[in-house]
Amino acid sequence: MEVQTTNNKLINDLLLILQTNQNTVIIAFIAVALITLLILRKGVVISIIAGLVFSGFVVLYYYFVLLAGHRPNII
To answer: Keyword Transmembrane helix: yes or no (predicted)?
Structure first.
């Protein structure tokens, strides 16, 4: 897969994280969305929002790991 780059370092880092850990982020989104849907039974919109928020935390975790100087795909 070709790595996309931009002039912005933050966006470059986030693109790198998303491309190297794409499956982890997608699995986290689906798992949290399904768990939220099953437990809360509030509706699809809230489940999707919860999945996006948790996926955002996964990306942030990888971003701070990248800032610490480690490879972004340690899990």
So the answer is: yes
Q: Which amino acid is at 61?
A: Y
Q: Model-level pTM?
A: 0.56
Q: Into how many domains does the chain fold?
A: 1
Residue at 1 is within a domain: no
9 pLDDT higher than 80: no
CA nearest to 21, candidates 60, 53, 62: 62
- Residue 61 burial class via C-beta count within 10 angstroms: exposed 0-12, middle 13-18, buried 19 and up: middle
**3-state DSSP assignment of residue 17:** helix
In a domain, 32, yes or no: yes
Neighbours of 74 (CB within 10 A): 9
